[in-house]
Design goal:
The protein has 106 residues and is α+β, with helices and mostly antiparallel strands. It contains 3 helices and 4 strands.
Length: 106
């Protein structure tokens, strides 16, 4: 296992997804954020809903996860924004190193 993480969150518009992605990278909380259009089906306040959303795949480190969560809550319009953290078990050593170099204080 590595100290690298992927944080999943969604946004209701492309503009909001872009704003969140850009802020996370500018603040050095993420090395990269992929933004992908998706359709979500979920239960909210006793109703089954479905919506077009934008999935953000936030590439970060374990150390930065709490700050990523705080930033998502700050920047997001949703009452309860998604913030799910997945460990990265392994991968390209060079890519993982690049992630680490681009998250955190310069």
């Amino acid at each position: 296992m590595t100290d690298k993480r992927i944080v999943l969150t969604t946004a209701g518009t492309r503009e909001e997804a872009g704003k969140i992605a850009r802020a996370l990278v500018e603040r050095r909380l993420a090395a990269c954020v992929n933004v992908v259009p998706i359709e979500s089906v979920y239960r909210w306040k006793d109703n089954v809903e479905n919506a077009q959303e934008w999935l953000l795949l936030v590439k970060t480190t374990a150390e930065a996860v709490d700050d990523v969560d705080t930033a998502i809550r700050e920047l997001h319009s949703y009452e309860l924004p998604e913030c799910v953290v997945l460990p990265i078990e392994g991968g390209s050593e060079e890519y993982l190193e690049w992630m680490g170099e681009n998250v955190g204080i310069e």
